[in-house]
Amino acid sequence: MEYLRSGDMPGCFLCEDASTDEFASNFLLFRSHLCLVVMNRFPYNSGHLLISPRRHVGAMEELTPEELTEVMSLTVRSIEALKKAMTPEGFNVGANLGSAAGAGVPGHLHMHVVPRWSGDTNFMPVVGESKVLPEALEQTFERLRPIFHPSPGQAD
Fold first, then answer.
1. Does residue 155 lie within any of the structural domains?
2. Which residues does the annotation mark as catalytic?
């Protein structure tokens, strides 16, 4: 609800995450010279990850072959990490391309990886106008970060 009530968010958080040194406070799990993996701050489910190029680009056809390859490679790596850390029963994977398709950041392409469990959707979003997440973002970050960075102190 915080996101819905806030209206448009200023700036591009993906561009900010691409250059920050604050991994934990930004829920940034991984960053290479081309792409990044960040936890969704307003997740559909615990473990909801976003994979994007570092470059501010809004369309798939604008990605370089290297960026496209790494986005897809990190999508697979994210699924593997979530399986290891959270043992989901399935996944939703996809991209909302353009504001008409539901893109919250239409100018910066990103893939969604959402872990799913049987029965994870309940009456709360309909009746209570809120989503109940069984784990705080910080806890999920602490479970996933070591999988993306097995070496302590590794920043990028």
1. no
2. 110
